[in-house]
Amino acid sequence: MIDKKPALFLDRDGVINIDHGYVYLPEQVEFVAGIFDLCLKAIECGYLVFVVTNQAGIGRGYYTEQQFDDFTEWMCEQFLLRGIKIAQVYFCPFHPDYGLGQYKRESFYRKPQPGMILQAAREHEVDLSSSLLVGDKESDMQAGLAAGVGCNILYVAVKVIDPTLQGIKVVSCLEEVKKYL
Questions:
Q1: Which of 31-45, 48-62, 154-168 comes out lowest in average pLDDT?
Q2: Which residue spans within the chain are E strands per DSSP?
Q3: With bands split at pLDDT 50, 70 and 90, how would you rate the model's confidence at 168?
Q4: Closest by CA position to 4, among listed 150, 105, 112
Q5: In a domain, 51, yes or no
Q6: Which active-site residues does the annotation give?
Q7: Tens digit of pLDDT for each residue in 78-111?
Q8: C-alpha to C-alpha distances, 43 to 23, 48, 108, 115, 168, nearest whole angstrom
Q9: What residues make up the domain containing 108?
Q10: Sign of torsion over alpha carbons 9, 172, 112, 109
Q11: Residue 4, exposed/middle/buried by CB under 10 A (0-12, 13-18, 19+)?
């Protein structure tokens, strides 16, 4: 039997970088405070690091898949410069309502569906029950819960406690995530 590894799944816009709306150029990026330290700690603890991101900007025609790929390569280089290897970036370009042409459709890979997370688990032998997901939207939490991710963490700029949220943790600083690794 293959030993499965835990993973840290990160949403991109709002968790890795401040969400300025459809970010696809390096000059638009402002990294969220603590993201690099969190990833270094995760790797130190034996976690693989993945990005799972809806990219409706592609589907809406705001930027191309090639522009997204170029940006992703640049972003991963920024992590590598700090000693962090992103195992893989998974993205979904589709949008069921606002996608154009081939991009206007439902997809099992678009959060809140768990497709990207399950694909990463399959392709990289990930133990989902011992993994973490950090996202900034309800759809991220729904995807993590549906995939069976053991710890789902909602990152919000201002900490609020919603008593209806079950099975997730809420943090207002990425430093707080380290205690769950």
A1: 154-168
A2: 7-10, 48-54, 88-92, 132-135, 151-155, 168-171
A3: confident
A4: 150
A5: yes
A6: 11, 13
A7: 999 999 999 999 999 999 999 999 999 999 999 9
A8: 26, 6, 28, 24, 22
A9: 7-132+146-163
A10: negative
A11: middle
Taken in order 116, 87, 51, 152, is the CA torsion positive or negative?
A: positive
* Span 43-55, pLDDT tens digits: 999 999 999 999 9
Q: What is the mean pLDDT of the chain?
A: 95
Secondary structure letter of residue 135 according to DSSP? E
**pTM (2 d.p.):** 0.94
The dihedral built from the CA positions of residue 105, 12, 134 and 90, taken in this order, carries a sign that is: positive
The span from the CA of 139 to the CA of 24, in Å, is 21
Residue 75 inside a domain? The answer is: yes
Residue 87: which CATH number?
Answer: 3.40.50.1000
Domains of the chain: total: 1
In a domain, 112, yes or no: yes
Whole-angstrom distance, CA of residue 78 vs CA of residue 161: 33
> Does residue 25 sit within a domain?
yes
Residue 10 pLDDT > 80: yes
> What is the average pLDDT across 28-34?
97
Structure tokens that stand for 87 in this block: 């195992």
